Amino acid sequence: VIHKALISPRSIAVIGASENTAKPGGKVVINLLEGGFKGNIYAVNHKKAIIPGTIHIYGVHQLPEVDLAILAIPADQCIHQIEKLCEKGTRAFIVFSAGFGEAGPLGRERENKLRTILERYNANLLGPNCIGVINEFYKGVFTSPVPEFHPTGCELISSSGATAVFILEAAHNTGLKFSNIYSIGNAAHTGAEELLEYMDLEYEHGKSPGIKLLYLEDIRNPAKFLKHARSLACKGCRIAAIKSGYSEAGSRAASSHTGALATSDLLIRALFRKAGIVYCQGREDLISVACVWQTKPLKGNRLAIITHAGGSAVMITDMLTSRGMMVPPIDEEKGRHLLPHLHPGSAVNNPIDFLATGTADQLGRIIDFCEALENIDGMVVVFGSPGLFNVEDAYNVLHQKMLRCSKPIYPVLPSVVNAGQETMDFIARGHVHFPYEVSLGKALAMSHIDNRNACTETESIALNHAAIRAIIYESPDGWMSPDNSFRLLEAAGLKAASFVVCKSADALPAATENLKFPLAAKWHSTGHKSDFGGVHLNISTQSELVIAFNQIMEIPDCDAILIQEMHRGEELYCGAKKYPGYGHLILCGPGGIYVEILGDIAFGLAPVSETEARQMIRSLKTYPIIRGFRHKQGVNEDAYVEAIVRIAALTGIAPEIAELDINPFIANRDSVTVVDVRIRVER
Amino acid sequence: VIHKALISPRSIAVIGASENTAKPGGKVVINLLEGGFKGNIYAVNHKKAIIPGTIHIYGVHQLPEVDLAILAIPADQCIHQIEKLCEKGTRAFIVFSAGFGEAGPLGRERENKLRTILERYNANLLGPNCIGVINEFYKGVFTSPVPEFHPTGCELISSSGATAVFILEAAHNTGLKFSNIYSIGNAAHTGAEELLEYMDLEYEHGKSPGIKLLYLEDIRNPAKFLKHARSLACKGCRIAAIKSGYSEAGSRAASSHTGALATSDLLIRALFRKAGIVYCQGREDLISVACVWQTKPLKGNRLAIITHAGGSAVMITDMLTSRGMMVPPIDEEKGRHLLPHLHPGSAVNNPIDFLATGTADQLGRIIDFCEALENIDGMVVVFGSPGLFNVEDAYNVLHQKMLRCSKPIYPVLPSVVNAGQETMDFIARGHVHFPYEVSLGKALAMSHIDNRNACTETESIALNHAAIRAIIYESPDGWMSPDNSFRLLEAAGLKAASFVVCKSADALPAATENLKFPLAAKWHSTGHKSDFGGVHLNISTQSELVIAFNQIMEIPDCDAILIQEMHRGEELYCGAKKYPGYGHLILCGPGGIYVEILGDIAFGLAPVSETEARQMIRSLKTYPIIRGFRHKQGVNEDAYVEAIVRIAALTGIAPEIAELDINPFIANRDSVTVVDVRIRVER
């Protein structure tokens, strides 16, 4: 739990305070003072450091009880000082110092000791290896810039202090507003999970900040992260995040940076999708998406592009429409009413181009026109200056219209040189602006996500719990035998092709009595059977079956044959893979050899709801094979959806499943039937 | 041909010159004067406009002979004035005015008239609807900013004047240098093609600018464009371009903007690839790529990431490695020699992280270290400031090292607020800088293209020219009959499955005497035969053949059956499609139903060399099917390469081919055999 002392301390001690503002212990005091902190600031330094506005203290032993201690001293001194402060009643700490978990075995040991002390005293810690906190109550950072506090501005959580600084710098001239900023550093005690939990529990609609931005190098508790991110998303919050270190080389970097471990990018994308978080690749994306959200909510994906510069309009239209957004044509009849108010040659078919000589008054008319159009959800206004005339009047109109219109307006003000001052004046009135049309287009498409999924509890599906647990109980670690694997799937409610396992040719006629030809005969093994001639298909008579049986039996180590009814249809795939902390990632796509080659795979974190499974299937490139196309019939999509939901639910009941691959299902109009499966158990 | 008068005029007349610098006719005069134009400037205006430094003239009739006339008067007056100027000997014009081709039928008529006059007098025109020219000799634009002329700076050609301005504004603080800037507007007479031709013909190695940036809404003469872009690429130039208006809605915008027509994005990408041009989506990309090129040449794809801010290093590493660049680990033994010079806890395994407290001296040592490493081709240096200390000394080191190192160094200076002034001082020394690490990563990957292809003439392949022309000669417009289509492919040297066409069941035995079972029987038609039951496969006896024959003959309109030997193997696809002006786009990929569904298609413009065909094939996601994978044999790749080369060559000999679809080839270890083809002829 996050203590009030960390958020709104009544008093702060800076351990290692300095008169030298080029040192963290000096700069943080300046920031606290300039940030108007209301309580006492104790400047702790064994030399006499005179900092007006603070109370000088020679050592921690002389301190009265303080709410929060900020440590700007070498790592090797931190533990002792924190222990002493804990004894004196301090329960909130910020440690700037590096030299902990990120710095080899010695540092890790140091970090563990620190954690032990904090746990013993039930104290909070932000850091170590962080730049601190900025919020309504205090500016506890040793860096600049320190953005002004806006109650509804973005909240920022960053694994990296420098990255937090660079985000704030890049956002500086965009008009993006901030509220609370948390640099978590190594997150020895307080991570993004705990901060999201705090934000979730404290959330008050209309009062709490609605936009969260995250830069993360590690997610240690994905379940907690997911729970609170989802909950915030359902309360109406918008979250955008960078999770860096997804590449092999990138994770080498991250691991030396904050000690993070490599995580598959796919897994992170699945986690973010489930949590309703927009996945960003860099600071540019993060800031652009946040700027989009800082305007009024965009209720659909249909945009009007209003411009006096054609090229920008063409480029943003290309970007928007290639990413699922729409720039719908405007009704000709309606357009005819607008045209007389514009210069001859203007275009009103969307993009609306009112030419280089277009006036502020015309801009106003066009915005009003679009505000009234039923097939438009938002407007992009591109207005720059060739350096000939002043754009102040146009930006005034834009300002007025942005206040009054119910639809969001996204201003692209590309004239960072010719209209630099006017642009600054414009954002000083509380707006964001976008210098690049294409970046805005991308951000609009990225940020326009549907969070209804995140807010729907996954309905539970009833599986035969007892039967599943019984099979798992009797399965040792490693690959499950094919017959047990099929039994497990049947217990989970999946339809598998009828089969028998047979060990001698003599027993064949009796064993296969109830199976219908054509049959398949397969080596009863968990390996890639077909690589060794262990699979015979399309067996249509008993005598063919005997021949196949005997041939397969010749494979060394082969002592049993699985004989299975054959089904006709398309090959589909479904798999599950366990990731500690994340649970199971469920995968689906076309089956057979195409799983590996095409990479046409959709994925989601278990549990998977019917809606999620359907979205997964429909996101496949090869979905037409499932839906049917031209004169070719599709397959039973509902059955495939159900199979995916059941497999995801199975991994919930049997978390011992480390890997599960159904390849293929045979799918046709009637059903989806498992014909081959491999399951690996790991406890 | 571009006249010298347009490039380096001895005298300039501004028609519609004005004292009002908020008007194009006023601002251009100021720009000419401030740009230090050496010749006479005639300010033509029927009112007495006193502009110091210019010679006032009441009307064109009073002008002496001038080299270049710049028109800043309404569109409807331009034609008359240009005609008068032509009579007086002027051969170069720049027309700022809008109201021509982009402005409906009247404007188009006006533009045609203009073109007629220019052609009659063999005069040059830039525009109309443009902002003019900036070069070494004069600054003939009515906009700002006017970048300083650098002989080796980028050349910029832009369809859109405003976009040119916005590009210059966005480049303003990056350190990117410019030489010649051409705004072509509607390109009524001089387009990007003519300017590239001019640059190509005038190119002098080491003297001429090496980087070309293009913003295009239309490519009217793709062949000419390709010829000169390729030629420039072979001379060592680097070209990056945006071709906007690729989406349906985007082209609606472009068409109302400069009258451009929609062009498939695929086609543009194929054209750019063949020309060695880097395809950019927006101004951000264009500028970042140009900034990368403005540093020393990067000779490989292996980068060292040097940073004092871990997060940035992780993010750029992710971006680089996910796009084909490498951040190779650094030899541990070598790293051990560097470590003692860095702060404890620094990482030297690449990224090289020398911590937030890293010094300028350490930065210098690390750069020298990387300069000496064999497995590193270039360095990214991330250096910002948390606002604690001055970064001037670090930027000084960076400056020195960038001058001295043989490897390129890409500086990411993210502290646009904390180190804004130092960053400006740094670029004032002639460097570029990158504010965003992820954008740099993307630009490095985009810009690192291999232009050797563009410089190799496509070797010609000998096809049976006479036979091909004979078949085309006898084929009317429309779909070719299957037997003619097969004959055409055979004339082009492709291997097709043996077949006969048969009209009666009685003739079957004799007709199929030389064919080997199994056979396929197909309705001899150009439609989707299988949709109507018009295809029977795996026929293994004469009696089965007769049954199949009679069944297919029952299809209404069916009067002949094609009987063909069957082949076993993988289905592959190859197609060609004619685009007027561009020639033929050649496509290849997996065949059968997958062509449509997977979209796993590679493409190139004809003619296609063996190298290009191989690159196309290897860029396919499904290439493992061709190469072979696991225990599955691949197919004869060389034969597929040859088939693609031959089809491309065929379209050169038979340009009447509008569409050609071979779907499928049957490919196996031995050969690649055509089993179905459709060809449409259009004259």
Which pair has the most extensive contact?
A: A-B, 111 and 111 residues
Main sheet record of chain A: 7 strands, mixed
Q: How are strands sequenced across the largest beta sheet of chain A?
A: 8-7-10-9-11-12-13
Low-confidence segments of chain A:
258-262
**Terminal Cα separation of chain A, in Å?**
31 Å
Structural class of chain A: alpha/beta
Notable features of this structure?
seven-stranded mixed beta sheet; alpha/beta; 30 strands; seven-stranded antiparallel beta sheet; 25 helices; 683 residues; homodimer
Helix/strand layout:
2 copies of one chain form a homodimer.
Chain A: H1 4-7, E1 11-15, H2 24-34, E2 40-44, E3 55-57, E4 68-71, H3 75-87, E5 92-95, H4 104-121, E6 124-126, E7 132-134, E8 139-141, E9 149-158, H5 161-171, E10 178-183, H6 192-202, E11 211-216, H7 222-234, E12 238-243, H8 248-258, H9 265-275, E13 277-280, H10 283-294, E14 303-307, H11 310-322, H12 332-338, E15 352-353, H13 360-371, E16 378-382, H14 392-404, E17 409-412, H15 420-428, H16 437-447, H17 452-455, H18 465-474, E18 478-479, H19 482-491, E19 499-502, H20 508-511, E20 519-523, E21 535-539, H21 542-553, E22 561-565, E23 570-579, E24 583-590, H22 594-598, E25 602-605, H23 610-618, H24 623-627, E26 628-629, E27 632-633, H25 637-653, E28 657-667, E29 672-674, E30 677-681
Parallel strand pairs in A: 1-2, 1-4, 2-3, 4-5, 5-6, 9-10, 9-11, 11-12, 12-13, 14-15, 14-16, 16-17
Antiparallel strand pairs in A: 7-8, 7-10, 18-30, 19-22, 20-21, 20-22, 23-24, 23-28, 24-25, 26-27, 28-29, 28-30
